[in-house]
Amino acid sequence: MATNHTANYQLNQWEATDQVLRTDFNEDNSKLDTALKSLNTTAQEHAAQLSQLQTSLRKCGDCKLHYTTYEGNGEISRTFTFPHKPVYIFLFGGTSSNLMIPGTAPLCFLAGCGANLSWSGNTLTMTQRGTSGPEFNRKENIYYMLALLDAAE
After folding, report:
1. CATH for the stretch 63-150
2. Confidence of residue 104 (pLDDT cuts 50, 70, 90)
3. How far lies 54's CA from each of 40, 44, 47, 58, 134, in Å?
4. What is this structure's pTM?
């Protein structure tokens, strides 16, 4: 029987004066088999999780950021052209912050959008809605636009 054992798995470590027993080897082999099985199961679970994440990531598509600023000129319409098709546009400045989502039915929402959106390819035209001044183009206000662009375009 072994006098000493390893710190982590309590495997047998014999001194020169210890009697070596077959049962000690069998115990060690059983411990090693259990530990290896656990590691293999964990590795398989991680591989499956990684595969799921990679599949999800591929569905997200590629995206590029485009940032610009502009000074409002008070006109009722303003047009912007982007290097790629926008997926989302965040507009900050003046008295509002807006999120715009292009598509077949463009959406503009959050506080004080006040604009109709018109898309043509990579170009956005915002036109004042109603009789109040355009929230997106008030004269001498500085606006900040961050666009998430479809990198596949």
Report:
1. 2.60.40
2. very low
3. 21, 15, 10, 6, 43
4. 0.52
